[in-house]
Amino acid sequence: MPAELPHYDAVIVGGGHNGLVAAAYLAGAGRNVLLLERLAHTGGAAVSSQAFAGLPARLSRYSYLVSLLPRKIVDELGLRFAVRRRRISSYTPAVREGQATGLLVDHADQARTAASFHELTGSEREFKAWQEFYGMTGQVAERVFPSLTEPLPTRAELRRRVGDEAAWTTLFERPLGESVERHFADDLVRGVVLTDALIGTQTWAHDPSLRQNRCFLYHVIGGGTGDWAVPVGGMGALTDALADAARAAGAELRTGCEVTAVAADGAAAEVTYRDEAGDHRVGARWVLCNAAPHTLARLLGEPPAEPAPEGAQLKVNMLLRRLPRLRDRSVDPRDAFAGTLHLAESYRELAAAHRQAEAGQLPSPAPSELYCHSLTDPSILGPELAAQGYQTLTLFGLHQPARLFTAGTTAQAALRAVLAPLDAVLDEPLADCLALDEHGRPCLEVKTPLDLERELGLPGGNIFHRDLAFPYSDGDGAADRWGVATAHPNVLLCGAGAVRGGGVSGIPGHNAAMAVLER
Questions:
Q1: Cα dihedral value 517, 291, 300, 154, nearest 10
Q2: In sequence order, which ranges of 285-342 are alpha helices (DSSP H)?
Q3: CATH T-level assignment (fold) for domain 7-83+232-308+465-518
Q4: What secondary structure letter does DSSP report for 128?
Q5: pLDDT single digits (tens) 343-381
Q6: Domain spans of the chain?
Q7: pLDDT of residue 313
Q8: How far apart are CA 486 and CA 251, in angstroms?
Q9: Mean pLDDT of 80-92
Q10: CA–CA dist 465, 455 (Å, integer)
């Protein structure tokens, strides 16, 4: 390593939330840290921004809910950040015997939830099965979640920790569809359960690869409860707090700096980056990569070890003048939209959508789920908009793989496909409720996987950087104690592509920092 190069204990590639967590921990431990971010701001996918001209609503533009962020990280880094629990877990509209109805799951009122199950299905069976199934996942969550910020357990160690062989088999051994079909009889209830296995993941209930199981596991273990909460102030409140913590600890954060190459020999590393002034090089003992493994391979000048990742989702951000009325008059729209509103997500519809997408067709009806964050956190609207009754609306579409868009599917076609099932359950057109920006345009923003690749550098628009992995080591764990190792001993993953990555968690950033400090 040339002596004249600026030298750091650690250089972090990428300023998303995980890179900021790693920077804060390492700098707090006295290490000399440089973080390089390609965009003009830190935060990556976990940012808040004013998406619509002239309207002061700060939307969580990409990532939008928090479940996997451990309280341990918030406390240890002294973050001024809070989340609010959504009282309503979900509402799923349906038509039974020609009548508009639906299934409402209310965290705070078990009797109300039981009554909704009974009204939809005609018996108590499905609610009892729901309690049994999610009682099982809750016990697994209590036992597995604390392990995510500990040294990576072996498969056998995690199995012992779970303790329940039936639960282990259901979640870790057999395709999730088997358990869903064994527990539940109602097609709509089955679909509501399965959706957590399909977020951003192009898979199906009986996929022998168990991609659906891995995705489902991370969606039901967060916080040891599986709750998904709303970040107060929007997702950017978290990454702003993390950037403040990293700077206060002494980390140097540089934005507008695109890393173009990484070289490492196991003992030292060299990072090349480009900013508006030209190309620069810095030396480091460690390189922590917050980008996808596929991107890291390119930076190292190596062939990727895995096929190119692919995202499978559509994100739609909206601002409404008011919430729309529903055809199901038995539910208040403020309840229906406060949690997860499932659309075209019955078990059969999800299977059909997967088949269509695999055949290269845009699913119809296109499954999706919606959230109104401003019902839980009105502060993201600004006082004037809140006083006038404005609301945000976030839609997340399933089974929309990047290949559809590279083959010619347009964002507007995908938007029409996901809005059609929404309009079908409304008692008025959604268009009548959309706010208009200062130019008179509807407040509606669409993000395809290709948009995420272009804007955030996510290969294929994959929000998890690559397929999620079970949170254990397949070996003895000695070679990769924290689940962050690469083929280069002094180059570590600190982003979603690490074992125990994915979602807004900070866990890979924590674990990469622990791996450095331990050595």
A1: 50
A2: 293-300, 333-336
A3: FAD/NAD(P)-binding domain (3.50.50)
A4: H
A5: 999 999 999 999 999 999 999 999 999 999 999 999 999
A6: 7-83+232-308+465-518
A7: 98
A8: 24
A9: 95
A10: 14
